[in-house]
Write a structure and sequence with these properties.
single chain; mainly alpha; 17 helices
């Protein structure tokens, strides 16, 4: 009886040694695997350091970058530019514009990269702006189908814009790869060409990182891309219409149109003892435009809704934009001219707005 515990202890001790030996082997295996992984990670880190010696801090390397063929290159938006407030504002303005244009199609864009890359939104937007129906499949899920749709859309866009001097800064591959800079370039060009009634932020530039592969090594450089310039330059690319023709080739007929418009607006403004002699300057602050809409629609516009004596550019733009809202409330289409152009004494823009009112209210008393 007394020897039993001794045998048990010896057996237990042997078992413990066996377990310790097993755990030791297991631990050694784990340590070796860990060290092997550390060596592998270190090797990969060294490889990346060699391949990307000039890569800016914070720039994300995509797998496709390391797979570039010799002498090939790839562009990506610099992370600091992505957070640029003016660039963010430009995206917001473009998104609001698209959603407004495609409201009847019940299309809601939340982000340009995710919502524009497959060609569906760009197709609908171009068809709405141009009045043309493109021969493409309505819904395409496959990458091939999406790129085919993009090809058709971009061919139509390029055919429209290239004769007007636009530099084509986009492609099927860049749009489908969700290249935000290419998408914004395209949308800005369309907005400017079709005189979108929006205010694009001026002088918006971004930094683009260009990754190139030379002799098996990735090299990077920064390139500045100017997305918008000034209002004056923007207006040079605007779609030409009847008023362009009048200004360029028939100044005598233009004077006849201006006299007709002056007669029309004074017919109504005279009710408030107001009179217009210069169309481009007297409507520039938006006050007469707001009052005229109230007279044409037979209602009083509360004075707290606009600035009766605007003191700066922003207040004048507010007045003109408010007048545009009143026009839409009256059933008119949103003016093609931008409020900023009217404030900046752009004669063509002012004539477009007033002529639109004239054609809709010329028989009003």
């Amino acid at each position: 009886m007394a020897g039993a515990p001794v045998r048990s202890a010896t057996s237990q001790s042997g078992k413990m040694k066996k377990d310790e030996s097993f755990l030791g082997k297991l631990g050694g295996t784990l340590v070796r695997k860990k060290k092997s992984k550390e060596v592998s990670d270190l090797h990969e880190e060294g490889k990346n350091a060699i391949n990307t010696p000039m890569l800016p801090s914070g720039t994300e390397i995509h797998p496709e970058d390391t797979m570039l063929e010799e002498n090939a290159e790839r562009n990506m938006l610099d992370p600091t530019s992505r957070e640029n407030p003016k660039f963010k504002d430009l995206q917001r303005v473009l998104i609001d514009w698209i959603n407004n244009e495609l409201e009847e199609d019940r299309i809601i864009v939340k982000g340009l990269e995710e919502d524009c890359y497959d060609g569906q939104v760009l197709q609908k937007l171009f068809e709405k702006l141009s009045g043309r129906k493109l021969n493409v499949a309505e819904v395409t899920q496959s990458e091939i189908g999406q790129k085919q749709k993009l090809q058709t859309v971009l061919e139509a866009v390029n055919e429209l814009l290239r004769p007007h001097g636009w530099s084509i800064e986009w492609s099927v591959d860049s749009i489908h790869a969700k290249n935000l800079v290419a998408i914004v370039y395209l949308l800005v060009a369309l907005a400017m060409h079709y005189l979108a009634p929006i205010r694009l932020p001026e002088h918006v530039s971004v930094q683009v990182v260009v990754v190139k592969k030379r002799e098996g090594i990735l090299q990077t450089s920064h390139v500045t891309k100017e997305l918008t310039s000034t209002t004056e330059i923007i207006s040079c690319f605007s779609e030409r219409d009847a008023f362009d023709t009048l200004l360029d080739h028939a100044p005598d007929k233009l004077n006849v149109v201006k006299k007709s418009l002056v007669t029309f607006v004074n017919k109504h403004l005279n009710k408030l003892n107001l009179e217009v002699t210069e169309l481009e300057s007297q409507f520039a602050d938006g006050v007469y435009l707001v009052l005229l809409m109230g007279l044409l629609e037979n209602y009083f516009v509360p004075l707290y809704n606009f600035f009766l004596t605007p003191e700066n550019f922003e207040q004048k733009v507010h007045n003109v934009a408010f007048a545009f809202e009143l026009m839409q409330d009256g059933g008119l289409k949103k003016p093609k001219a931008r409020p900023e152009d009217v404030v900046n004494l752009n004669l063509k823009s002012t004539l477009r707005v007033l002529y639109n009112l004239f054609t809709n209210y010329k028989n009003s008393e």
